[in-house]
Fold these 2 entries.
Entry 1:
Amino acid sequence: MWKISSGQTPFINYEHENDIVMNIINGIRPKIVPGTPLEYKNLMKECWDVDPLKRPDADALDTKIRKISLNNRNMSYELFKSEIDNLEMNKVEKNYTNSRLFTSKIHNFENLPKPRNAIEEEQEAFHSKFYNFNIPDNINNFNKSNKQNNNKSSKIVTIFRDDEKEITQQQIKGKVLMSTVGENLRNNK
């Protein structure tokens, strides 16, 4: 339901499925997109309840969604247009290059804590975390810029350096190829 209201895959900015699983078990849910109709929002929250007995079954879900749809059809055009415009403006940034969109894996998780519903304060704290995206001007100093994430930074620097080497090698191969092509063209004149 969240994917329908947002147009995005939930938790798209998370690299590791383990993090997503643990957050969901601990009651964290995706932040509901502003402009989502209240009835739909409430139904989505019902579906997210940790207790399966509190979740609507498929028939109840179908009935409630049809009712919401019917109510939205009866909405005035201006109100409907403003809701659509609001949703468009507040869409989460799309990231189609994320491999989770194209692949699926089977994971065997063991010794997980008992699932629970997060309280509103926990949800708010989760969605309002401050992320430090400080990137130094000199890539060689990247590893020194953030001591707390030394391990992650080191991996990123290695990836950048490997990519830089590969690009340089491709450029050299391209120049050699262009030189050879140019020489062949001159010889064939």
Note: The two ends are 66 Å apart (CA to CA).
Entry 2:
Amino acid sequence: MATPRRPTPAYTAPSSSTIHASSPVYRAIAATASDLSARVLEDSFTLRPCSGQAWTVRAGQVCRITTPLGPQVGDLNVWNAHNPRERDSMGGGQLDQVLTPDGMTRRTVGFGISQWGGRVHDLLGTRCDPYVNLLMGGQSFDFYCHSNLTRAVVAFGLTELDVHDVLNVFQVTGLDEEGKYFMETCPAEQGDYFEFFAEIDVFIDVGDLSAWSWENKENVEMLATTRPLGVEVYSLADPDILECWKEPGSPKYTGMHGIKMPPRNGQEGTNYCGV
């Protein structure tokens, strides 16, 4: 169906909105990436192929995910480190900010287009899992992307119900002209990195993706195309960089979403609560 004019964006924000990660403070943080003396390494480790690992990044720190041995994609989940019910909402973020879900909406972390319209580090992916695989006619398998993420968080008291839609790090994804989801070859090279600035204390879970397919693949073939990911957590050496930054607060909305409590008509001293 043709429309007389190009549809306008459904949501817009003024240039002064904090949803944009282009303010001087964010540019100053980004500028420290190329200066080793501007950051203090707090933690680093290697994420093995076909596995998952979870860790904490404190507010004001920078986390870097690298490709030490060549192209490799990963699934990224983010939670509030103190409240896992507050987590990143990939449907509520694009390009430079990841937001939390309705009721807690605030920034959690701050972070090209191919000839086919694909975007790297895209937000379309939902991760592969054993349930969809069975629906698509596959067989049971314990090392899907969802499984890698789940194993990593169990030791921290979370379950697979806490694992949610991901940000596909180093992966190019998009929708074709028929609206079908597609993935392109990982464009990352050895030594490339993706990094984000933690706006609040966050709990991170990354799965080092297995070879994608709805068909069964031999482990040998999977391991031959899967490489490790590196993780580095930094503090900024110069605290003045964050002088104009402050941790975002949760909305103070205390309404009832239109629900009205009936009057309390019980006698004094009773436990009648009016609902």
Note: The chain has one domain: 24-242.
